[in-house]
Amino acid sequence: MDKANKLNYFKWSLGDRYDGWRLRKVDALFSVSSFLQPKRVESEVFFEINIPIDKIENFVREQKENIPGVSIMHVVMASLVRLISQRPHVNRFVVWNKLFARNHVSFSLAIKRSMTDEGEETVIKPYFLPTDTLADVVEKVRLEVEKNKKEGEENSSDSISKVMNLLPDFLLRTVIFFVLQLDKIGILPKMMFDASPFHTTLFLTNSGSIGIEPIYHHLYELGTCSMFVSMGKKERNSSTEKDGKVKQTKSMKLKFVLDERICDGFYYATTIRMIDKILNDPDQLLKPPHSVVVDSGVGKKRADL
C-alpha cells in the first residue's frame, strides 16, 4: 500500500495501526463483543440478494467503447467501492479484541493464470479510493491482472508462500505463531502486509465465471478481512404479466459473509439495501460520489479538513 492509496482523514496516534485507526467512540456493546466472540469464524453473519442484471448487461454493452474491458464483475466491484464510500462501518476490522477503521480500501481476488485444472492460481489485491468511478476500478484491476497473469511469474504472495512451504513443520508453526503475534500488536512487516491477501477490505470471488452458484465462504482468522462476497452465475427467470404474457428476465445472486462485531444488524441491513439500489442504477458509477462519509467512530479531529 503506497501513500496515494492511504486515506488521510486522521493523523496517527497511540493505539492506531499502520493499516487502521483505533475506534474510540463506539457503543459499549461493540467494545465488549470482541472479547465475548474473539474469533471471526464464530462471528459470521450471512446475507443473500438477488440482482436483476438485464439493465446491468445493457449498461455494460453501452460502456464498452468508453471503458474497454468493462464487465459485470467490474460493475459489482465499483458498486462495492461506492458502498464503502457511503457506509464506512463495513470497512472496519477486529484484531486482538480491538476495533479499527481501515485507512484504505482494497479487494482481494483469486485469479487463474490459465483456465485449466493445472493452471496456476494467484491472488491480486488492487487498492481503490472512495471517490473512484467505474473507469478507475476497471483500470486498477486491469493493471493488477496484467502484472500477475503470466504463467511462471511470482508475486510477493506467491514467493512468501513458497518459502514457507520449504520450512519443516515445527519451524513453520513457529514462524506462523510469530506472524500472528506481530499482527496482533500491529507491527507486521510491511512486506508481509502488502503480500497478504488476508489484510484487505473484502475478498471477492466470481463463482459465476465457472458456471456455479455463489458460495458462503468463511472469513479468515489471519489478517483483517471482515467481508467475503461471492458472485453467482446468471439465471433466467420467467414471470407472468397481467395480460398473460410470459416475461423472461435474468438475475444474479450475491452472497455476503460478514463479521457481526464491526457494526449492528440495522446498519448491515440498510447497507445491503444500498448495494441493491446502486446495482439497479449503475449510471451513477460513471461519476465520483457527491461526498464521502468518514467513520465517526474514530472519535478524533479530522486532519484532512
Task: List strands and helices in order, with pairings.
Blueprint: E1 20-22, H1 28-36, E2 44-52, H2 54-63, H3 72-86, E3 92-95, E4 98-102, E5 105-112, E6 121-124, E7 127-128, H4 134-148, H5 156-165, H6 169-184, H7 190-195, E8 202-206, E9 227-240, E10 246-259, H8 265-279
Parallel strand pairs: 5-8, 8-9
Antiparallel strand pairs: 1-4, 2-10, 3-4, 5-6, 5-7, 9-10
Keywords:
three-stranded antiparallel beta sheet, seven-stranded mixed beta sheet, 305 residues, alpha+beta, Chloramphenicol Acetyltransferase
In short:
The protein has 305 residues and is of the alpha+beta class.
Tally of strands: 10
Q: How would a textbook summarize the main sheet?
A: 7 strands, mixed
The oligomeric state is: single chain
Average pLDDT metric:
89
- Write the H/E string, N to C: EHEHHEEEEEHHHHEEEH
Structural class: alpha+beta
Strand content: 15-25%
How many structural domains are formed by the residues? 1
Q: CATH superfamily assignment?
A: Chloramphenicol acetyltransferase-like domain
Radius of gyration: 20 Å
Shape: globular
CATH C-level class is Alpha Beta
The CATH architecture can be given as 2-Layer Sandwich
Query: Would you tell me which CATH topology applies?
Result: Chloramphenicol Acetyltransferase
Q: How far do the termini sit from each other?
A: 23 Å
Number of helices: 8
Level of helix content? 25-40%
Q: Extract low-pLDDT stretches.
A: none
Can you give a write-up of this model?
With 305 residues, the chain is α+β, with helices and mostly antiparallel strands. It has a single domain (20-288), classed as Chloramphenicol acetyltransferase-like domain (Chloramphenicol Acetyltransferase). It is 31% helix and 22% strand. Strands 2, 5, 6, 7, 8, 9 and 10 form a 7-stranded mixed beta sheet that branches. Helix 3 (72-86) packs across helix 4 and helix 3 crosses helix 8. The radius of gyration is 20 Å and the shape is globular. The two termini are 23 Å apart. 32% of the residues are buried. The model has no long low-confidence stretch (mean pLDDT 89).
